[in-house]
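Q: What would this chain look like folded?
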Amino acid sequence: METTPVIRPQTPQDDDAVARLVAQAFGDEGTAVVDVWADVVARGLDRAQLVAVEDDDEGRVVGHVGLSHGWLDARQALVDVLVLSPLSVAPDRQAAGIGTALLAAAVAEAERLGAPVVVLEGDPGYYSRRGWVPGAEHGIEAPSARILGPAFQVVLLDGHEEWMTGRVVYREVWWEHDATGLRDPHLAQVEEVLTRRSRPAAPR
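A: My prediction, written as structure tokens:
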């Protein structure tokens, strides 16, 4: 019988389980995602890590989300913001609400930390149903043209002010690992899908 996971801050005892979980959740890209997140943590750029743990005797880690530092390059000032990545759920526990719960917990933690904005790259269909909106709706630009508009999602928090618009700047670790946006041929494939979705339906 599956139990409802408990979401709590990650501890050092969770590190190995989290690395295995992230690798499994991201499939073929798992090793690369593990490596870049490990580098983020090693450089002290992480601001929060939360895990979802089964509420039973085994206490298996079935979900993880990370928040790290970034900037918003607004006209008035350089603003500290948070980047949400990665979000991982064990393959055998996906579609059970764990990702949704982790997202909500991460946003609450970002609010507690005083961040005005949280940003991410991801499936707009998934995140829009959970309260995220395209950054362009609030004048917040992606750090790369290879992050397609609908996929660059944001949540505005209580600390956000109207002047906080402009381009998001990722920390150097994401660029060194080439972990920003998509590249061809995957980028071209996603562009084609979005183009097909935007075409008006043919009259019947």
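Strands lie at 6-9, 46-53, 61-73, 78-89, 117-121, 133-134, 140-141, 152-156, 166-170.
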